Amino acid sequence: MSRLSENRTVRERSGSGPPSAEFSIEERGILLAIAHEAIFSAFTGRVPEAAFSPHLSDPRGVFTTLYLDGDLRGCVGYAMPIAPLYRAVSETARAAAFEDSRFLPVTEEEAARLEVSLSVLSCLFPIQAEEVEVGRHGLVVCMGGRRGLLLPQVPAEYDWDRETFLEQTCRKAGLPSDAWRKGATLDAFTAEVFGDGDLSS
After folding, report:
1. Which CATH number fits domain 125-189: 3.30.530.20, 3.30.1490.150, 3.40.140.20, 3.10.310.10?
2. Across the chain, what does the average pLDDT equal?
3. For residue 1, what pLDDT band results from cuts at 50, 70 and 90?
C-alpha cells in the first residue's frame, strides 16, 4: 500500500470525512486549487488574484503534503496560525515543492502529476499524556528551547500506540524519548485532512 493510500485509510478510520467536516467540498476544492496554482506559478510566473471568503481567510495552521505516483514528494507546514488559511496553503505548497531539503525541487513535468493533501490544524491546546488519542490528536512537545511536531495521521500510519507516539514526538524535537515524562510541555491539535483523491472519489 502506498503512503497516499495509507493516508486515505487513516482519514476513514479517524472520522474526518465530509459528515463532520469543517470545510465544504467547494472550500476543499478551492484550497487544493490554490496549492496547485502556487506550485505552477513558479514555472509560469503568473500569480493568480482572487478574493476569498472570511472562513478561508481566518489564520490557521496547515501542512501541505505532496505525492508523486503515490510516494511522498514533499511536506512543509505552519503549526501556528500565522497567516490567513488561503495564503498559508499557497506558501506551504510552494515550499513543499521547492524547499523541502529531503528532496530535489519539483520539475515542471512532475508538477502536472502531483497529488496534494492538506492538513488544516485546529488551535493548540494543552494536554496530558494519558489524554492523547492516537489517530485524533497531533502533538507538539517543547522543552529547553527544542520543539517537535507530529501530525495526527503519523502514529496511525505506523501503528504506534500512545507511548510510542509520545516518544517519537520527543525524538522529532531532538529530545530524549522519555522527555514527556520529565517535564516536557505537551500541546495537542486536531487536523482536518483532505486531498485531490477525496474530490474525485
Report:
1. 3.30.1490.150
2. 88
3. very low
* Sign of the Cα pseudo-torsion (171, 175, 179, 183, in order): negative
Of 42-51, 69-78, 98-107, least confident by mean pLDDT is: 42-51
3-class DSSP state of 118: strand
- pLDDT, residue 201, reads 54
Q: Given this model, what pLDDT does residue 199 score?
A: 81
- Which architecture characterizes domain 3-122 according to CATH? 2-Layer Sandwich (3.30)
Sheet holding 146-150, edge to edge: 125-126, 185-189, 138-143, 146-150
The residue extents of the domains of the chain are: 3-122, 125-189
Place of cell 513558479: 42
d(CA 148, CA 115): 26
